[in-house]
Amino acid sequence: MECKIIKIIADYIGKDPETIKTDMDLMEDLNINSYDIMSLVGKFEKEFKIQVQDRDIRKLITVEDVISYIEKKQC
Question: Tens-of-pLDDT digits for all 75 residues of the chain?
């Protein structure tokens, strides 16, 4: 799952998945703005068939946060 999430992020921002590490900050390190985060959330919802609550989006700060959140939603 981690690889798939990183691939989605990498494809969206046009980077090589190998350059994205789990401790990277979405906004600071990957230059993803709030609009892009909303777009990525939509992609995660579609890909993993989950529903991300609006209040939870601001908790998604690092790549690891995204991975952990989606893993919990999959249970």
Answer: 999 999 999 999 999 999 999 999 999 999 999 999 999 999 999 999 999 999 999 999 999 999 999 999 987
Q: How far apart are CA 5 and CA 17, in angstroms?
A: 10
In eight-state DSSP terms, residue 25 is: B
Q: Which CATH superfamily is domain 2-74 in?
A: ACP-like (1.10.1200.10)
Q: Check: CB of residue 17 under 8 Å from CB of residue 10.
A: yes
CA distances from 1 to 31, 33, 49, 57 (A): 23, 23, 13, 19
User: What does the alpha-carbon distance between residue 37 and residue 11 come to, in Å, rounded to a whole number?
Assistant: 13
Which of 66, 55, 54, 2 has the alpha carbon at shortest distance from 30? 66
